[in-house]
Amino acid sequence: MRRRTFLQATTAALAAGAMPKLAFGQDNIITFGGSVPMTGAAAETGQNVLQGYQCAVKYINEEMGGAEIGGQSYQLDLNIFDDASDPARATTLIQRQVDEGISFFLGSFGSNIVLPTCSITEAAGRIMVQAGGGSDLIFTQGRKRVFGIFPRASQQFVSSVNMFTSLDPAVKTVSIIYTNDAFSEFQAKGARQTIEQAGIEVVDYIALPAGVSDVSNVLTTIRESAPDILVCTTHDQTSILIARQMVSTETNVPMLYQTLGPQTAAFRDALGNYANGVVTQAYWSERAPYSGSYFGSAADFAKYFRANFDRELTYHMASGAACIVAYVEAAKQAGSLDLDAVRDGLDALDLECFYGRVRFTQDGDGDPDLLGPLLIQRQNGEMEVVAPPDGASAKPVYPAPTWQERA
């Protein structure tokens, strides 16, 4: 059988805006279509997700000899284009891939792109497995062929509040800042509900426009409220903006918690020592006790990734790889590449692997009891797991040092 490595050789052309040429008529090749932000506002995390897809394809093709499905061996191919963080571009080109016959899709990063593109694949009877969209709207409108590695946004805060209620001194007040987009707003609503149910007062609940460039007025309010924890359900660049302006205005809180941003090298590079003490979510850690037949353990995945890729490892790479693994295992269990059979295989999937236990709800999002986030905090430059306690590598630093003390 012909052996090839499919690692998106056309990435440079795609980033430049060229439409990928789809590889049809090639025997025993499974092609995954889709897009990620290789440029634009979400490029930092988009590139991370892309390398997760690439890592799983490389491992399955080269280390496992391909995917054995229904008695035949298949090589995997990626046909991923740069959507430039632009929903309009993504929908146009996803529709073109649908028209050209792609059956299996991988998602972009950001609910603002995943939501319209999964509507296209769903209407066409195709399948999408994705690690970039958590808005409730993706999973509550009756779709049957869209699967997400993460729980929906409104169910992502249980582990966070469990940590809040364990802190000493006790957390009495929380302020919430969110951006007005499909993911962040749902996550903020879920956070507020879960926090208030725990008996903690939400003293501020502040919406930011998606394209915000200044939060100084908002931070004036935060200084007046003086919450024990500031929760920001914001995307990467907005999280950096908020943290930078908190430093410059000396807006100190005992804990700054930002759901997206602090996981990335860009956040570390932008904030330097000020990144220490910031808490964020992570859906995977190489220190977690997960293992299975793909890659081996979580630590083995990290070792393999670092041996083959240059980007700093974040959970997004593991989440992207888990999408490919879920597809392959579902097809294996179905013994077929028939779309309905693979869909049913994903629906029934219950897989222990390097990423944890992968199982989807009846609506297609990640089971919140199994795939909810870990809490991580940058301490002395290292990302430490601080919750839940049974998976923690360090205790949370709370109250955090002031910005002046971190300089």
From TrEMBL:
It holds the Pfam family Peripla_BP_6. Residues 30-364 form the Leucine-binding protein domain. InterPro entries: BCAA_transport, Leu-bd, Peripla_BP_I. Keywords: Amino-acid transport, Signal, Transport. Residues 1-23 form the signal peptide. The keyword Transmembrane does not apply. Residues 388-407 are annotated as: Disordered. It comes from the Bacteria. One of its GO terms (biological process) is amino acid transport. The keyword Transport applies. Belongs to the leucine-binding protein family. This is ABC transporter substrate-binding protein.
